[in-house]
């Protein structure tokens, strides 16, 4: 329980990054689940966590969502929703074969990468896909094309180990939630080794990932510590911790205000706070309340971009 007065009388300068928290794809995915519960009645099944945040998932469970990892766990006759990270083509095909009504909450920016993958294969190119092994978005993207047509690239060393000749018909794509700087370095290595490689028409890393990393780059050099509100399995949140550390601050991932150890603040005069794209503003307010219970706070929001993007809902849930 927090003390009723600050345990440390020194003022703490607090720089709150903006943009932070929910992006348009996460907003859309959560609204799909909420609307589906209203339309169909509970329970509504969701394959995989709709977004990578326990607070959000638990809130949707309380409303009537049931989260499962495979379609085998979904009973007949109930609707199922696919998560914002995207799924292999085989998943909706299997749901249709079972006669399940399904809704796709895949982020439209992930779906854009899926369509690019299909087009590159149709053009006869092998895809070098930059991403993290085992991430649901990577699994979903690999599942858009026939086996053997895509190679995962995680590091520059992976580029050096590729078996393709310099004149091979290749294209590259990437996961949407990667480090902007790391991905740029890998792309440079790919282009150096394969000068004729086909690039995507537009940057694959999504606007929200790029904007949140840019905001952290702005505040982190001024801070001794940056707190990133997010989940350990959230790729974009983990990248924010890395960006903070590369910018000269200590980066710490937290999920709730209670995770903050007062000892972390002992040598801190300026603290940064941000939130991954799956973390709601409610958790930001909780963290700020916790900090105000530990130190006198002088808070300032540092805005580096304005986001006004929205995505349409599936037609089944409109009207």
Primary descriptors:
single chain; 319 residues; alpha/beta; Cobalt-precorrin-4 Transmethylase, domain 1; Rossmann fold; 3 domains; 4-stranded parallel sheet; 12 strands; LytB/IspH; EC 1.17.7.4
Give a verbal description of the structure.
The chain has helices spanning 24-40, 54-63, 90-97, 108-122, 136-142, 156-160, 180-193, 207-219, 235-246, 281-292; strands at residues 12-18, 44-47, 65-68, 80-82, 102-104, 126-130, 150-153, 170-174, 225-229, 250-254, 270-275, 297-303. It is of the alpha/beta class and 319 residues long. The protein folds into three domains: 12-22 and 207-303, Cobalt-precorrin-4 Transmethylase, domain 1 (3-Layer(aba) Sandwich); 24-107, Rossmann fold; 108-193, 4-hydroxy-3-methylbut-2-enyl diphosphate reductase, catalytic domain (Cobalt-precorrin-4 Transmethylase, domain 1, 3-Layer(aba) Sandwich), CATH 3.40.1010.20. The chain has a five-stranded parallel beta sheet with strand order 10-9-11-1-12, with helices on both faces. Helix 2 links the parallel strand 2 and strand 3 (65-68).
């Amino acid at each position: 329980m927090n003390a009723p007065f600050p345990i440390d009388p020194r003022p703490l300068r607090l720089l709150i990054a903006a943009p932070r928290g929910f992006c348009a794809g996460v907003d859309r995915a959560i609204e799909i689940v909420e609307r589906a519960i209203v339309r169909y009645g509970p329970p509504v099944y969701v394959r995989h966590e709709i977004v990578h945040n326990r607070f959000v998932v638990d809130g949707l469970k309380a409303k009537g969502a049931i989260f499962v990892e495979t379609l085998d766990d979904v009973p007949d006759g109930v609707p199922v929703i696919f998560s914002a990270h995207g799924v292999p083509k085989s998943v909706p095909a299997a749901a249709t074969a079972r006669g399940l009504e399904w809704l796709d909450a895949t982020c439209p920016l992930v779906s854009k990468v899926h369509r690019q993958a299909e087009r590159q294969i149709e053009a006869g190119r092998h895809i070098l896909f930059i991403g993290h092994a085992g991430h649901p978005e990577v699994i979903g993207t690999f599942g858009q094309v026939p086996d053997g047509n895509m190679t995962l690239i995680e590091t520059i060393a992976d580029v050096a180990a590729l078996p393709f000749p310099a004149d091979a018909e290749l294209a590259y794509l990437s996961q949407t939630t990667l480090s902007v700087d790391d991905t740029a370095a890998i792309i440079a290595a790919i282009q150096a080794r394969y000068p004729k490689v086909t690039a995507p028409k537009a940057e694959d890393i999504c606007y929200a990932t790029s904007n949140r990393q840019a905001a952290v780059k702005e505040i982190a050099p001024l801070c001794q510590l940056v707190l990133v509100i997010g989940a350990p399995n959230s790729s974009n949140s983990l990248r924010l911790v890395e960006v903070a550390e590369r910018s000269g601050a200590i980066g710490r991932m937290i999920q709730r205000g209670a995770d903050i150890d007062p000892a972390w603040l002992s040598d801190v005069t300026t603290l940064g706070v941000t939130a991954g794209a799956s973390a709601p503003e409610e958790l930001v307010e909780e963290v700020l309340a916790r900090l105000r219970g530990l130190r006198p706070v002088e808070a300032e929001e540092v805005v580096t971009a304005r986001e006004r993007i929205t995505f349409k809902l599936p037609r089944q849930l409109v009207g």
